[in-house]
Design brief:
2 copies of one chain form a homodimer. Chain A is mostly helical. Chain A is 70% helix and 7% strand. Chain A has a two-stranded antiparallel ribbon with strand order 1-2. Chain A binds a DNA duplex (30 and 30 nucleotides) through helix 4. Chains A, B: InterPro entries: HTH_MarR-typ, MarR/SlyA-like, WH-like_DNA-bd_sf, WH_DNA-bd_sf.
DNA sequence: TCACTTAGTAAACATTTTATTACTATTATC
DNA sequence: GATAATAGTAATAAAATGTTTACTAAGTGA
């Protein structure tokens, strides 16, 4: 019982801990608005073509909004639309190479800042960190998959 | 070298992994706008009274914006302002009990959804998870503090 | 076939967020 | 003590986001 509470609190602490990095993500990004960024980020993480409805649900944004947002992203060359062969009403949206590049550039920034700090840990701590990180990712994934 | 790359990639994966929970955070929150939420969340994490300049820097938001945002939050009873005894130009902003409650309610939601999934892991996995989570938090904190 | 639902678009409108400029009262510096 | 820098406020315009209603074309199911 009390162990559960402790774990959940540590989980919340972890999220808080990473919160700062998250807000960093979209700082230098003057090329895109918040929502545009949000959509791009989501597309990147999902790693697959999606129709507007799926994006709408995933981001909790009205489909009417997405029409314009995606039209702009397409015009700038970050996304492409193609008709869904299985449903003639729908369109499949996917990232262009240029679109992927933009997102990857942002992650590279975080990635580098992380390494800067990481190498200040001593060797044993680095190993512990690596092990704990990996374990956590595996278990988190497992928790999601079983849901 | 290659181990560094691997670790940094796992770190990015962890952030991605937790991303979903983040966007959950402000879903049901109809009472506050994004920025208002942002400010509240920041205040909650910092756990101390701050002046506008500090909040402005921390959130990367112009102080001119904060004037109104904070005035509204104060009017709704989520924040209180008091003159800074050390600097007569400045005001110290802090969360009211009502303000803390609002933020805590949101975290409780995440907290509960986390536990739901967590209890599906077997006992050994739960122990591993706990250990890894704790280790990671400790080391992340250490990395930050040494920065 | 006929009613019903769904994917996407459109336009009008309110609200929020961002950006710019300017001002007062302090504080810091020299 | 004069001058410059800083904390906060104010007012405004512009851009972005959110909401509502309505429409077309395509799928669904009796």
């Amino acid at each position: 019982m009390t162990m559960m509470k402790e774990i959940a609190e540590e989980f919340v602490a972890l999220i808080s801990n990473l919160f700062g990095r998250f807000s960093e993500l979209n700082k230098g990004a003057t090329e895109l608005s918040h929502m545009q960024n949000h959509v791009m980020e989501f597309m990147y993480m999902q790693q697959r073509a999606m129709n507007l409805k799926e994006i709408s649900k995933g981001l909790n944004v009205a489909k009417q909004q997405l029409t314009i947002i995606i039209r702009n992203l397409e015009a700038r060359g970050y996304l492409t639309k193609m008709p869904d062969p299985k449903d003639k009403r729908a369109v499949l949206v996917s990232l262009t190479p240029k679109g992927k590049e933009v997102i990857e550039k942002k992650w590279t920034y975080i990635y580098e800042r992380f390494l800067e700090k990481f190498i200040r840990l001593d060797e044993e701590e680095q190993l512990d960190f690596h092990f704990a990180l990996h374990k956590l990712n595996v278990l988190l994934k497992k928790m999601e998959d079983e849901a």
